[in-house]
Amino acid sequence: MKRHTIDFERPLHELEDKINELEKASCDGEVKMEKEVERLRKKMEKMRKNIYSNLNRWQRVQLARHPNRPYTLDYINYISNDFIELKGDRNFREDESIIAGIGHWQDLSVVIIGHQKGRGTRQNLMRNFGMPHPEGYRKALRVMKLAEKFNLPVITLIDTPGAYPGDKAEERGQSSAIAENLSFMAALKVPIVAVVIGEGGSGGALALGVADRIFMLQNSIYSVISPEGCASILYRDASHAPEAADAMKITAQDLLEHNVIDKIIDEPLGGAHNNPEGVAQNISQIVYDAIIELNGMTPEARIEARIDKYMKIGRWIEE
Q1: For residues 212 and 302, is the Cβ–Cβ distance under 8 A?
Q2: Which of 53, 77, 187, 272 is the right S-S partner for 279, CB 3.0 to 4.6 Å?
């Protein structure tokens, strides 16, 4: 996979390239550089730990958007070997930016729904850069109704910059499609577990995010608007996005502190793309355990707890 370098990673990658050059020269017999390579490797490992252990909010935003980061279908392929995708909203058309279907999650029969971005120009155009149209949310709603009919837990994987804001999407009822999903998920009788695997942007993310348990990968983000959008409104300049990210507190650590999410799922140093299969295994087990716990509750108790969970989100100071 082609390497993508974020600005703050540049010194690390430059050192890695230097090590590769020295190793090649040593293998070609030009000069023996084993000791120098070993010294640089130790330096690189120390630098790696220092960089990724002290990421600021904007740097986590950049990692959440990393083009090599695993997407919904990547995780599904690692976790479920019999996933059957269901297409179309039975009203207008298929929306490739939402994946929905039925499969096994370990030994549980489940419904899996998630946003899907693309890699490369052709895929991104097909997936609409992970920004769903109303049809995508209506497809998700159709499959969630199927889950309720057959008593299947629902797992959602969230990764979108936001719902598609184009005029055609608005004409076809973008806001009402999102609102209908929010309303239906609040009263869904089966367990719902949501995992933010990358970007959790605005109502486009929340339309799959009303869940009994909400988990976030360590370098994912979840917010009402993108940092660039917020900066454009508050500062009238999108270049202030890093400042906006700080003010918005959009990282997994921030949201856990404010009781918006239930748990952070660890990633390897440098992000989930450095060990996607290992991250998939972590997600699989944490989600599985949550569903087993939720299955021990009655539907009425789950719905009551779900509504209570969302009513308590946020902090107020009464004077």
Answers
A1: yes
A2: 272
